[in-house]
Amino acid sequence: MITLYHGSTLKIEQPLANAGRADLDFGQGFYLTSLRSQAEQWAMRMQLIRAQETAWLNVYEFDKKAVFSDGYYRCLSFDAYDRSWLDFIVASRKGKEPWKGYDVIEGGVANDKVIDTVEDYLNGTITVEQALGQLVYAKPNHQICLLNQELIDHHLYYMDSLPLMTE
């Protein structure tokens, strides 16, 4: 089991795979991270954007070993900001839905700093080689997207929701 976090303006005891937008990095699913600080920052950002009273850190345990090793679920994992990750993100941003058919996808986040490079590549401003050269310097981060409700119901266990103190 690994601990995963989801930053939000809501307590989420029963996550839904189909509640998010389809044009995100890894498609329409429930996004989590193993990095607590990343989830906290996201929750506080959403609190400001949505003008909500509270930011929440939702905590879960995930049976990653069972999901990735039993062969029942279709899993995709990106270990680096490489060509396959870049192609996948670009296809998602173009609405091609490369995530269709997967149950879980794990890899780096196309965050504010990384997305500039992705968009420059998408717009033809830089080549794939230049994009990959810039991505080498990106600070590592993590996201895991659960796209299958059955997987969420059987392998993601809600632990707690912690209110975050904001300034």
From TrEMBL:
Q: Which organism does this sequence originate in?
A: Phocaeicola sartorii
Q: What is this protein called?
A: DUF3990 domain-containing protein
Pfam family, any one: DUF3990
What are the leading ranks of the lineage?
Bacteria, Pseudomonadati, Bacteroidota, Bacteroidia, Bacteroidales
